[in-house]
Write a structure and sequence with these properties.
The protein is mostly helical. The chain has 2 helices and no strands. It has one domain. Keywords: Membrane, Transmembrane, Transmembrane helix.
Length: about 80
């Protein structure tokens, strides 16, 4: 019995990249949703450029859909 080290390395690299991508997409979704929070005037971030609540929600939706698509594709590969 032999181990295909090249294939094992490819699986490890892709798994690491997908794991980082999922975490980053969910983090960006949370940042996008934070645009909906009301920021009081005179705070430490007063005057900082922000996105509109609608744009933040759209960004969050796209990021969560992308993360769900990646997870769904991974499950489809495992099941099929």
């Amino acid at each position: 019995m032999g181990i295909a080290w090249g294939s094992l390395f490819i699986v490890c690299v892709i798994s690491l990249a997908v794991g980082v991508a999922i975490v980053a997409l969910v983090a960006f979704a949370l940042v996008g949703l934070s645009a909906r929070a009301h920021v009081p005037a005179g705070g430490p971030n007063d005057g900082a450029p922000t996105v509109s609540p609608g744009a933040g929600t759209a960004i969050a939706g796209v990021c969560l859909l992308a993360a769900a698509a990646i997870v769904g594709y991974g499950l489809w590969i495992i099941i099929a």
